[in-house]
Structure prediction request, 492 residues.
Amino acid sequence: MNPLDATRLSAELRSEEACATCGSRVAGLCKPMDAASLDEISAEAERLTLPARSVVFREGDSASRVYSLMTGIAKLTRLLPDGKQQVVGFRYPGDVIGYTSRRDYSFDAELLTGATLCRLDRPKLDKLLGRFPQMERRLLDLCVQELTATQEQLVTVGRRPAEARVAAFLISLLEARRRRGKVERTLDMPMTRADIADFLGLTLETVSRSFTAFRKRGWLREPEHQKVELLDVAALSGLADGTDEV
Amino acid sequence: MNPLDATRLSAELRSEEACATCGSRVAGLCKPMDAASLDEISAEAERLTLPARSVVFREGDSASRVYSLMTGIAKLTRLLPDGKQQVVGFRYPGDVIGYTSRRDYSFDAELLTGATLCRLDRPKLDKLLGRFPQMERRLLDLCVQELTATQEQLVTVGRRPAEARVAAFLISLLEARRRRGKVERTLDMPMTRADIADFLGLTLETVSRSFTAFRKRGWLREPEHQKVELLDVAALSGLADGTDEV
DNA sequence: CGGCGTTTTGAGTGCTTTCAAGACCGGTGG
DNA sequence: CCACCGGTCTTGAAAGCACTCAAAACGCCG
Prediction:
């Protein structure tokens, strides 16, 4: 179950089925909480539903709220003075967005798809963290995981050639799905070539060329808009970590 | 005061002067602790001194210990199968190294200078975190700060041209010194051109050329080995975030 | 059936890398 | 004391990979 997605509908949240709404296998902030605690949490949080392309918050906004993504996918971006932007990460159901020790958010959070979120005022969250140590520990774990993922991304952007970066991105999509326990053959990929390029430190043309190359090699298919099917995961991961050409 | 650097010498640690050993203005893990708590912490931790180039731990080692850097500078690196490496961060006095929720460390930690560290077994740390909530909160804050810094680094590596990356690195050195409350005119820079290149996703030659260019423009001096003096911080930060050429 | 945003593809340029050689520096041993 | 040695840094020239600019194709929506 998701950390912050305990809502006023706590009765729902206590049942296995209700959790399925936000992904029953999702490992969110509330994962370690018991039913009684969830009651208290749900009294503080509120649920909201937003359409695709909504801005959840912007870099520089006062960091007064913390969100937990229940459904949908978000991108986190930082903007440079010259207009270029860097995607610092994508977020999936179960992820916490906007927790920081700074006064302001350090990136934009924007939805790629329609999404439902659980929102909590920072003072209320702090109160809850004080009351439920296992929740604070969970938040720390999530933070460490994000840090590791960002370091991994740094390796990708800093040291891999273009096609390897795109391959690594596709593998990371697969990983994200696996964590959520999904099993469909095709992956949802709501990000545009430009989004992917901004994530990988490339241009959208280079990303497009890589996709074309992979398609021609029979490594993937795009059965419909914003879906990918990876046909040769071994080839892709081989390319991603350079375990092919030497 | 430093989080994990409470040692068996707790009496020392309680006094302002003793803290100066590990940098009195350093904001480490034990920062929020009172003297009585430090007693308990120091009973668990041990201090060690290591020479330059020591390996504190390697990627893949069992993550059974957590370290706090008291003095010295460390680099954290990830190795790619093809031998290239990426520096995911440098660590300065007051930083915690090796806390993870995974079973193994996800990067190498290596000392650039001689250093003193405070070492704590993971089970003991967990026990302490359970007993001292303010310590756990502090660890969470440090983790969020690291995450923000790594995201910033992602922007640098992904979206800035070579010279801007080097400029950004120099500014980050300045920042790190400011946080430690130092005031000397020159900065310690124990990292080699290769270290810097691996941090910035460049080659050592490109880093060298950037330094030469900055020197020729009068933006910096290197009065002695492993020292830099920034003569025109404005020019460097302008270049770093692209606020000059447009 | 238009219109608009996204994606694809092409051609040429350029920044960074690669490869190579020499300079510099500190440490070591004769 | 000085010559030698290994590692680091600098500099040059050439090559390559990704970028830029440009235009056409595609697909979705109204």
